[in-house]
Every structure is written in C-alpha cells, then in structure tokens.
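thought: fold this chain, then report.
action: predict
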Amino acid sequence: MLTSTKQSNPFTILLVDDRDENLLVLEELLDNGDRQFIKATSGNEALKYALKNDQIGLIMLDVQMPDMDGFEVAKFLKTNPKTRDISIIFVTAINKEEQYVLKGFEEGAVDYLSKPLDSNVTKAKVNVFEQLWFYQQALKRSAVDLATINKQLEKFVYIVAHDLKSPLTGLITLLHLLESTNDSHPVGQSELADYVGDLKEAGYHLSTMISTILEYSRQSIDQQASEEVSVSELLAQTSHLLFPPKHIQIHIIEPMPVLYTKKVKLQQVFQNLLSNAIKYNDKAQGQIDVGCNDKGDFIEFFVRDNGPGMTNEQQIHLFQLFQPSGHSQRESSTGVGLNILKMLVEEQGGTLRVVTAPGAGCTVLFDWRK
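observation:
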C-alpha cells in the first residue's frame, strides 16, 4: 500500500540551512530515489515554500541562521493552520544542554539531530517520519471516502422513502374509501372484492420492494443481478399500483421492448416519473403517455403529460436536492425524486432531459442501455 501511495504522492522534505554545502550533503544523505527535496537558505524562504506546498511531509530545520533562527521559523509554522501539522526535526550544532533541547520542543519540533550528523541515525529517523506521513495521508483519504459513503447512504434512504411512498399512499387511500362507506353509501360485494384485491396487491408489492431494497443494500451496484424485463408488463404493474384517480388516464404506447437489465432501477425511474405526472396534473381530464424510440445502443423512453408545465425558473431547481420543485402550490417536494432519477439514468451512460413550458405540459425523456 505504501509503495503505490509513494508513486502517486512522493514524500517531500523541506531542507532549511543557510549554507548551500550543508543542504547538498543532507539531500545526498537522504535521497533514496523516491523522495522530493525543496531547499531553503533562510527562514523567510522556508516559510514561503511551506505555505505554498501542501505536500511537504517533513522539515529538516537548522537552528542557527541569520535574520530568523530555526526556533522562530518553527513558531510561525505551528501557529499557521496550513503548516502546523508538518513534522519538524531540528538540526543544530548548538551544545546539547537541556535548555536548548526543551526550547526546540516548546516551539514545535518533534525530534532533534545534533551536528555532526550520524548518517545511520538520521536515515532511520527520516524513514520513521516518512512512514508516519503516508499513514496520515491514508487516514485523510479514508475520511474522504467515509464522507462520500455517508452521502450515498443519505441518497439511499431517500430512494427508499420516495419509492415506498407511492404504493403506500394508494393503499391508505383505499382504506379511507372503505372506512367512509356507510348505509347511505354501501359497497357492493363485487366492488368490495376489487378493493380487497387492490389492497392485497399493494401490500404484496410493498413487501417485494422491501425485500428487494434489503437485497440491494447487501450488494454493490456491479453485483446486482440483471434479468429479462418486459417493459410493457413493468409499466402496466407500476401504473396500476400507483392508483391514479379516475380522471387521469395512463396510455402505454406499444410496442415496448424487452430488456436485459436491472429491473428495480428501471422500475424506480418509471414509478417516480408517473407518480409526479399524476400528482401535479391540474386538468379535469389528465392524460399521461409513455412511449419509446430506438436509439441504437439505447432506448429513449419518454413520459408525457398534459399538466401545468414549468417555467424556466422552476426547471433550474428541478435536479437539485432539497429544493422545492415548484410544480404546484398544492404539493410539497424535497426535490429528491428527479435528482435520484438523474443519478440512475447516468449510471446507464444516458441522460435525462425535460421539455416543458407553462401551460404546455411536460415531457421527460431518458436513455436506458439495451
């Protein structure tokens, strides 16, 4: 692990001494073919290099220099947030009395080397600091990876909530219809059987979705199994389980392809698009058309409605998380849905596009790899 890391980010040492010959000797002593060296002949020059280069892992700092000595340089480095974490080894010809050693540690040194330098001791100490620096870089990368994973988990939670909401809302609506029946509004046996059948189907669908989500969470994207999917059957099932109001008609324009793909992801896209088209439709007779075009390696699907459409300003926020979509004052939205769809479509190598204008309905097009 350390070898590959060194190749991408070589260990950089800042050598600071007011005598050029000392810098050359120190570089020759420490050069192992992989390290990079920056040489400074004054404290001011050292500070300039340290502030500009965030790859410096160690500073070999001479104590006795004119204008600004090593103690002053170390003090400035440790008070600046950009440089305070750089390890410093003091190199000095001052006598070894305890007071000088303690002063060095007080100003931020992590180690001390006395001139004349012992080559074996010097190499060994630098090797230790080099290993520590690479471990620190690995920890920083791990922290970044963890932050990325946390963001992915947040998105996953919203995918789950968004996809479960639609069939659950339909199920609750049916229960309310049954609850509101009374002697003045009796439900016939046949109608009651239909209601119960729809409730059972919605319940089974929710159970299947939960099982699929649990399986999804156990597998990486590459490991998720593809299967043969009849898009016509998938759309018919998805449309039915969204329980559209009677005044909204969903028309599937045949023929639809049969794809070898990850069914859950394609279902997520259609479910979200159809759900939005139903939810935001403001017409007395709502019409939603679903169709496709063959584009070679991709199928271009579209979901077209005759709803209110959107302004240019509303379209700007369409794919942003936690921004209201602005379709309607009657509904609130976190803006998660289309952001998720965009991510799922882009996983296929395709794009998601919206064609709309105020009062002219909305058409959402997306590419799905065959």
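thought: worth noting. The chain has eleven helices and twelve strands.
final: tokens above.
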